[in-house]
Design goal:
Number of strands: 6
Radius of gyration: 31 Å
CATH class of one domain: Alpha Beta
Shape: elongated
Order of helices and strands: HEHEHEEHHHHEE
Strand content: 5-15%
Largest sheet: 6 strands, mixed
Structural class: alpha/beta
Helix content: 40-55%
Length: 258
């Protein structure tokens, strides 16, 4: 009996580990009503976002429209997600092409993974690609970034104000700039010292530098002139997190425009 019970428990544990995330929906991951991409690009992007959705455990969606005819980008994105059969965890990128407007709606674990800061960081990388008219490339990059953001959040460290995301190239550039500034400052200091330096002829002995009667030390004392106290405020910043609101369906959403 004990062996049977142990076997059942093992099966339950293995099953739990095999399905770590909630199931994603079968709803389309790409809806290109604005016709920003060719049929081949839509097919390719759909396959990519399906894969990202399965890997991340949240629905990752792209919706384009020619223009927003009523309501707001926020309400349109929230309602489209809620009323089209998407999973409880996900994010939807809405683009109104003629309005030059973009909005990301998040739900469930998508709210945790894409914080307010994270959405702006993602948008800063995706928006320039869109502005060049490279819609397919922009949406592919969006999917890649969401996958990265969710993976970081699954590890308990969502990208946020206290855990910012930066590329290797950004780090290299920052190091080079710092080194350049340091070299320039050092050169200025050396030149300033050199210009004020007045060399004297070397003497054979130290006593040769003294002038008789020039120094008469009668008394000495220590006098404390002033104090200088530096106070550094302790940071209690635990991250900006995600601001949320309630959609028309009564669901909680996060999100933001960029």
């Amino acid at each position: 009996m004990k062996r049977v019970l142990s076997f059942i428990i093992a099966i339950i544990v293995i099953s739990t580990l095999a399905v770590p995330f909630s199931a994603v929906s079968n709803s389309p991951k790409v809806v290109d009503d604005a016709k920003t991409m060719s049929d081949a690009e839509v097919k390719s992007l759909s396959a990519q976002l399906e894969e990202v959705s399965k890997n991340s455990g949240i629905d990752v969606v792209v919706v384009t429209i020619p223009t927003l005819t009523s309501g707001t980008m926020q309400s349109y994105a929230d309602d489209y997600y809620d009323y089209n059969g998407y999973a409880n965890d996900g994010c939807l990128l809405l683009v109104a092409v003629e309005d030059n407007a973009r909005y990301i709606s998040t739900k469930g674990f998508g709210i945790t993974a894409l914080t307010d800061w994270g959405i702006q960081n993602l948008g800063a990388e995706v928006r320039p690609i869109m502005e060049k008219g490279k819609w397919y490339d922009a949406f592919v990059r969006y999917g890649q970034l969401v996958d990265e953001f969710v993976a970081e959040a699954r590890n308990g460290k969502p990208y946020d104000t206290n855990h910012k995301r930066g590329s290797t190239s950004d780090l290299i550039i920052a190091i080079l700039i710092s080194l350049g500034i340091g070299l320039v400052v050092s050169l200025i200091v050396v030149l300033a010292i050199k210009s004020s330096y007045k060399p004297v002829r070397l003497k054979a002995e130290a006593n040769d530098y003294l002038v008789d009667g020039s120094l008469q030390l009668k008394e000495s004392y220590d006098h404390f002139l002033y104090t200088h106290v530096t106070r550094t405020r302790r940071s209690d910043d635990k991250g900006g997190g995600s601001s949320t609101h309630t959609s028309s369906s009564g669901s909680s959403h996060g999100g933001g425009s960029f």
